[in-house]
Amino acid sequence: MATLQNKTVVVVGGSSGIGFGVTLAALQSLASVVIIASSNAERVAGAVAQLQAHKLPGEVRGEVVDARDAAAPSPTLRGPAATWRRDTWAAISRSRAFTTRFWGPYILAQSAKFNPGGSLTLTSGILDLKPRPGMTLPAGVSAAVAGLTSGLAVDLAPVRVNVVSPGGVNTEVWDKLQIPDEAKEHIIQEMANKLLIKRIGEPSDLAEAYIFLMKCGYITGQRINVDGGATLV
């Protein structure tokens, strides 16, 4: 069975939610080094401490960096300037909606250091496959990230590039909505009832998809929807 032994896994945004689930799963898959990269120093330190408390094999490190900033210093994420062609659309104004989900991965991919056999896995969404009223911009971002994945898979080859598209997931984001627990549970249950598997996802569900894409050396330019069947109903 394939593992991540002797591999270094960098999870940008790995201090919480799905990203933290991926870092934990990477350690459980015997990754030699797992690095949590985020712009929030306090959350990075807290996530590193949580992972170390599991006492799993593998080194856990944290790095404070804004992946959206091409000039940000980072010994882990930044390598020599990329030589592949930069299209004129790189000069398009970076709207707030695209800053993290699209421009962050785009900038990171241009300057990241990849070891032989390395890969890059992006995160998108499913709104471009099943749009909802009032969600045009997020749907556009999801579609853009899917297209970015295909383009990067060609430009960065033989580095493999894939994307995971989550559906509804039970993460700390729900707590930030500042709604009563009873109302939150009602919303989550309503979402679950509409899904084929009758529950929303957990970070560990999504982590399995990311780990698969890291391990499988014969997949690139592909999208995996982890949505409980949301795009089918």
UniProtKB/TrEMBL annotation:
<keyword id="KW-0521">NADP</keyword>
<dbReference type="GO" id="GO:0016491">
    <property type="term" value="F:oxidoreductase activity"/>
</dbReference>
<protein>
    <submittedName>
        <fullName>Uncharacterized protein</fullName>
    </submittedName>
</protein>
<dbReference type="InterPro" id="IPR002347">
    <property type="entry name" value="SDR_fam"/>
</dbReference>
<keyword id="KW-0560">Oxidoreductase</keyword>
<dbReference type="InterPro" id="IPR057571">
    <property type="entry name" value="SDR_PhqE-like"/>
</dbReference>
<dbReference type="InterPro" id="IPR036291">
    <property type="entry name" value="NAD(P)-bd_dom_sf"/>
</dbReference>
<dbReference type="InterPro" id="IPR051122">
    <property type="entry name" value="SDR_DHRS6-like"/>
</dbReference>
<dbReference type="Pfam" id="PF23441">
    <property type="entry name" value="SDR"/>
</dbReference>
<comment type="similarity">
    <text>Belongs to the short-chain dehydrogenases/reductases (SDR) family.</text>
</comment>
